[in-house]
Design brief:
heterodimer; A: mainly beta; Immunoglobulin-like; four-stranded antiparallel sheet; three-stranded antiparallel sheet; B: alpha+beta; 9 strands; 24% helix; globular
Chain lengths: 109, 142
């Protein structure tokens, strides 16, 4: 499987107290556990990202509890506002316990 | 607005299709699973209709990736349910104080079905809305 690489898009700078849009994408197969291996006829075990969290300076902003019905390469878009600059951290949790993380600075300007 | 005969017929057809859909789904065997999924989220509380905006495509050509977006002013969390998927639960969004109660994602739909959004409001009440989505090629393998 290709290396898992999260991608996040935030505005270069934001205005305090005004909503801005955050887009996140991570490449992941999101194996649903429903598919069958065509050769063996056995079910392919489930392996998905089951949790996503975005937090600003340590405070959770947006979380998602994810079921297998979310598409592969899960994409999430949400809006948020901040009062001051800081770090927006993103975390994806895999079924196998792996955690994929990235972060973006939020600048006021 | 002047409709040609052809347009008028097409419109009529669309209306009939939409009105038939809920009847089909009422007989779905997965109704129980849907109820259970909603109850797990609401704890059995009453759910009022409206107050939630769910945007879905009317016709999704590929059920593997159906773009949806949902918003509900005053909500603290929103659950998305696909009534005819093998497992009805899709995703639950939780919004912190800094987030706007709105989100967009892409989901899998096994076939033509209703997608329900249930929102939990800050005061503990629940609201929901439901959209029918026609799926040409279903997701979830098979």
């Amino acid at each position: 499987m290709a290396k898992i690489k999260p991608r996040v898009k935030v505005p270069r700078s934001v205005k305090a107290g005004e909503f801005f849009t955050v887009k996140t994408l991570i490449n992941h197969k999101m194996e649903s556990g429903q598919r069958k291996d065509k050769k063996t006829g056995k079910k392919i075990p489930r392996k998905i990202i089951n949790f996503f969290e975005a937090s600003f300076n340590g405070t959770p902003v947006f979380t998602a509890d994810i079921q297998p019905a979310v598409s592969s390469n899960p994409f999430f878009q949400f809006s948020m506002k901040v009062d001051g600059p800081g770090k927006l951290a993103f975390k994806w949790v895999d079924d196998d316990g792996s955690v994929y993380e990235t972060a973006k600075p939020i600048k006021i300007g | 607005m002047n409709l040609s005969r052809r347009q008028a017929l097409a419109l009529g057809g669309a209306v009939v299709t939409v009105s038939l859909v809920p009847i089909d789904f009422a007989m779905a065997a997965s109704d129980e699973a849907t109820k259970e999924a909603i109850n797990a989220f609401t704890g059995g509380a009453d759910i009022a209709d409206g107050g939630v905006k769910l945007t879905t495509p009317e016709i999704a050509e590929n059920g593997n990736t159906v773009p949806i977006s949902v918003s509900a002013p005053g909500a603290v969390s929103i659950m998305i349910i696909a009534t005819r998927n093998p497992n009805p639960g899709v995703v639950t969004f939780n919004f912190g104080a800094m987030a706007k109660p709105a989100a967009a994602t892409r989901i899998r739909l096994a076939g033509t079905q209703n997608v329900i959004a249930v929102a939990k409001m800050a005061d503990g009440t629940f609201r929901k809305t439901s959209n029918a989505v026609k799926v040409t090629i279903g997701g979830c393998g098979g």
